[in-house]
Specification:
PurM-like_C_dom, 13 strands, 60s Ribosomal Protein L30, Chain: A, single chain, four-stranded mixed β-sheet, 350 residues, ThiL-like, thiamine biosynthesis, Phosphoribosyl-aminoimidazole Synthetase, Chain A, domain 2
Length: 350
């Protein structure tokens, strides 16, 4: 890295990125610059705390994400965990580990994207850490969110007879990654991608955590289990099934497939369901709701201009996940999805 001391780097990366008004509105008492941040805790609420890490060559390569996108996505993935609990993101801490020789300009771009996402969702960045590392560039984001007492949505709350829902389209991020890996572009070669590729690249590089959907689910009073789709639909359904001690059947014909995903999968000679079930990094929400409340919940989402699809139901068949195919056959869905330690199904360009 170019010659610059730690405190000068902190000022360079964070100075002027967020207004004093945003910090004050978020309840920041003491922000970046002291040993720790001090923030106000509202009475009658619970904090939600989450941490997410992205490491170069594991979660991203420079041919799959531009530097600004890296920062944006690191913040988005942590904020998504707050959405999956039905909470509101409030504060963030950022830890950056840099190998020797990292250009300051690159780190600046990463932080520009990080702050762009933080400001979009009203998250005040209140501190963190920077350090040298012998390995690859690593960015860790801790986000603190808030929800009412006892109102956090858990994976373990699904009940037999519930309908299973998903927000938005799934599988596009994994398809975007496939496209980018094939192109092998340097950051300087990126430009506007044609339809139907552009939405796939956008879904991979700039995922949008579903904070509004999570809040709507919480206010509805009917949502039970909730999870975000970071490792593929099949994996997230398995997490709900195991945590709740139930079985889940997902209906193939009810899983929405975006037109751009269908077109790309066909061109690749792949089944779009492979991207949806096992791709991940969509950061949409999947959960359960009493079957009798499903239609009303869909109407609430429609009125808010948000999509919600009923894709299955909860049963008593153990704690597994199955898919009811369009031909009527029922097949088990494996736990496949991204696993950091399996050596398979990697994402992010690993």
């Amino acid at each position: 890295m170019s010659s610059i001391d730690e405190f000068a780097l902190i000022r360079l990366l964070n100075g002027g990125k967020q207004s004093a008004a945003l910090a004050q509105a978020a309840g920041v008492v003491t922000g970046i610059g002291d040993d720790a941040a001090v923030v106000e805790a509202s009475p009658g609420s619970h904090w939600i705390l989450t941490c997410d890490t992205m490491t170069e060559h594991i979660h991203f390569k420079q041919i799959t994400m531009r530097d600004r996108d890296i920062g944006y996505k690191a913040m988005a993935s942590a904020v998504s965990d707050i959405a999956a609990m039905g909470g509101v993101p409030r504060f963030a801490l950022v830890a950056l580990c840099m190998p020797g020789g990292t250009k300051v300009e690159r780190v600046q771009a990463i932080y520009e994207g990080l702050y762009e996402c933080a400001s979009r969702y009203g998250v005040a960045v209140v501190g963190g850490d920077t350090t040298a590392i012998l390995g690859e560039l690593t960015l860790t984001v801790t986000v603190i969110g808030e929800t009412g007492l006892g109102q956090a949505k858990l994976r373990s709350a699904a009940q037999i007879g519930d309908a299973v829902f998903a927000t938005g389209y799934l599988g596009r991020s994994a398809a975007g990654l496939d496209f980018l890996l094939e192109q092998n572009l340097s950051s300087g070669q990126w430009g506007d991608f044609p339809e139907p590729i552009a939405p796939l690249v956008q879904a991979h590089c700039r995922p949008e955590p579903q904070i509004e959907a999570g809040q709507l689910l919480q206010r509805s009073g009917s949502c039970r289990a909730l999870n975000d789709v970071s490792d593929g639909l099949a994996s997230e359904l398995w997490e709900i099934a195991e945590a709740s001690g139930v079985g889940i059947d997902v209906m193939e014909e009810r899983i929405p497939v975006a037109d751009e995903l269908a077109a790309f999968a066909q061109a690749q000679g792949k089944d779009p369901l492979d991207y949806i079930l096992y791709g991940g990094e969509d950061y949409q929400l999947v959960g359960t709701v009493p079957a009798g409340d499903a239609v009303e919940l869909q109407m609430r989402f429609k009125a808010a201009g948000l999509p919600l699809h009923v894709i299955g139901y909860v049963n008593a068949e153990g704690s597994g996940v199955r898919m009811v195919q369009t031909n009527g056959y029922i097949v088990p869905l494996g736990k496949k999805g991204y696993n950091h330690f399996s050596g398979a199904d990697g994402k992010g360009g690993a």
